[in-house]
Design a protein that fits this description.
heterodimer; A: 208 residues; mainly alpha; 76% helix; B: 207 residues; 7 helices
Chain lengths: 208, 207
């Protein structure tokens, strides 16, 4: 069975790589298989992890006297399915509204703390601390954050001193985009090496 | 009625989820815990809806004999095989068939698709990295330094390049990432407030 699996994986890999030549039947088949199996995979995983473990086992947990509150989630979930019936489809907005509202409230606070407050807190620090290289590093960090923010501030025209700060912001952003690009290329190359290692090593066995 | 109740639910759920951070009372924590559970349970019904929609669209495509309809058959076959393999009588998530479909079909296809992007990135890089301006040159140099970071063939140049790459990642890169993160954070707060206060109602659809 293992050998069938390795052959299947090898054919799937070749099928996807064949797209480099041109769009073809083998690639389309692999793509379609992936779409179907992914949908099935996530459905099964969510079914067991969420509906079975969270709800079914939770509702049977006699140690939790409030376990029946879980039913409310199921009621909202069933309302979501009313979208399939045209006349009462508008009821599906209720669970959707709950998800949207709860997520908005949750993210509003968590992102404000993690993305705004903590980042500001980490940036406001003594610059002239340590030796010269450390002072340069701290200056680059503080000035870089400030100028980056200035670049994204579009309520004032980027002219004069403000414009120069914005220009420094672009430089810092370009360095970041370059670094991110380099990182992405390396990660993709690493994946490519992994696939070639699989094809020539695990499948064909011609690698030492 | 059809629009007011959802808006009211959004307002109550949003305000509660935001306020519970400031109210560490047992009732508040109790409701918070169950609200998170409800979100998870609603998620599986939403996914079921999505899968049903996928089946319906594929079935209609097959029935109409639309362009490329045989691929819809392949997709449906993949879906039903995976669901069948993951059912309880097959052993659920621990099923031999389910794990092997994941390891020998999903993982190879997914990782090869991502790996394939390396080639498209290379062609995009050629167009983007032609150093036509000073800023494009800065981008090119930063990318080159980061890409050469772990190159074992650079000899004595290897270490200084690795240190320069670390410096770029730890200081200028971090500075810009922080500025972007602050922008995202404030943007999310503004968008969440618009949703909670009923200014943004796109989630309700058109009718």
């Amino acid at each position: 069975m293992e050998a069938i699996g390795v052959w299947t994986a090898a054919l799937a890999t070749i099928g996807i790589v064949s797209f480099l030549y041109k769009d073809n039947v083998l690639y389309r088949i692999c793509e379609s298989v992936f779409i179907g199996t992914s949908a099935g995979y996530w459905f099964v995983t969510y079914f067991w992890d969420n509906l079975y473990r969270k709800f079914y086992l939770g509702i049977q947990d006699a140690t939790d006297p409030n376990r029946f509150f879980l039913w409310f989630g199921v009621v909202l979930g069933v309302l979501m399915l009313t979208r399939l019936w045209g006349k009462i489809g508008w009821l599906s907005r209720w669970p959707l509204a709950f998800v949207v509202g709860a997520t908005a409230g949750l993210y509003m606070m968590t992102f404000f703390v993690s993305n705004a407050m903590r980042q500001v807190g980490a940036t406001i620090m003594p610059i002239f601390r340590g030796n010269l290289p450390a002072i340069i590093d701290n200056t680059v960090l503080a000035v870089g954050v400030f100028c980056g923010l200035v670049y994204f501030f579009f309520s004032k025209e980027h002219r004069g001193l403000f414009g120069r700060a914005s220009r420094v912001g672009i430089w810092i952003l370009m360095i970041t985009f370059g670094a991110s690009f380099g990182y992405t290329v390396m990660s993709r190359m690493s994946l490519m090496l992994g696939r070639f290692d699989f094809l020539f090593g695990t499948w064909l066995g011609i690698l030492p | 009625m059809r629009k007011e109740i959802p808006q009211f639910i959004v307002l109550i759920a949003g305000v509660f989820m935001a306020m519970q951070f400031f109210v560490p009372h047992s009732y508040s924590q109790f409701l918070y815990r169950y609200a998170l559970d409800w979100l998870i349970i609603i998620g599986i019904f939403a996914l079921a809806l999505a899968v049903w929609s996928f089946i319906r669209v594929s079935y209609e495509k097959i029935q109409r004999k639309a362009d490329n309809w045989p691929y819809a058959v392949v997709s449906l076959a993949g879906l039903f095989t995976m669901v069948f393999a993951g059912l309880w009588f097959m052993g659920g998530l621990e099923s031999y068939l389910y794990r092997h479909f994941f390891s020998f079909i999903m993982i190879p296809i997914q990782s090869t698709m991502y790996a394939l992007l390396a080639f498209f990135i290379a062609s995009a890089a050629y167009r983007a990295f032609r150093a036509r301006s000073l800023l494009a040159t800065v981008l090119l140099l930063a990318a080159l330094v980061v890409m050469l970071r772990f190159n074992p063939f650079l000899g004595p140049l290897g270490e200084p390049i690795a240190r320069l790459a670390d410096w770029i990642l730890n200081y200028p890169n971090l500075a810009a990432k922080r500025a972007i993160a602050m922008g995202i954070g404030l943007g999310i707060v503004a968008t969440a407030l618009k949703v909670i206060l009923g200014i943004e109602r796109g989630y309700m659809g058109k009718d």
